Amino acid sequence: MLDYSVALLANPAHEGDPKKAYAFLQSRGTLSISEIADHMVKHGCNYDRADIVAIVTKLVGCIKELMEDSYRISLGDLGQLYLSCKSTGAASLKAFTEDNIQEINVNFVPSKQFENLRSDVSMHKVPSRAAQAAALEAQLEGLTTADWTPKDGGEGEEEEPEP
To answer: Which of 52, 62, 65, 111 would disulfide-bridge 37, Cβ 3.0–4.6 Å?
Structure first.
């Protein structure tokens, strides 16, 4: 089940348009490799927790090494990893050097199984992060109501949470 909250957001390209409600997925947390290994063992995996952690840890190093050697990595039903770069322009092909390359980024392309999970999951509406924080603060102060109206007088917009 996926938790989501809803926030009113303005369209920056059309400032005069009314705000619209949009969904934001709410993460319950981040799982470590060890926690995923424990989960796999509970599902009857033939390997024990330590073996799974060791394999995944080794896999990470190998993937990095192979990608640095210009390989794309296929992770089967999970998807593919590949590198891309960000560079500044040069006046000519001859003038372009390695120094023009500013960033090397890892990209993920999900497999068909992971392209759009909407039909595979049920949704559960939860309060926004701002409402959750305000409710907790009010509860800790012994209050029976909470106000999560932004101090700038806005309408409760919130930014999409970091992954």
So the answer is: 52
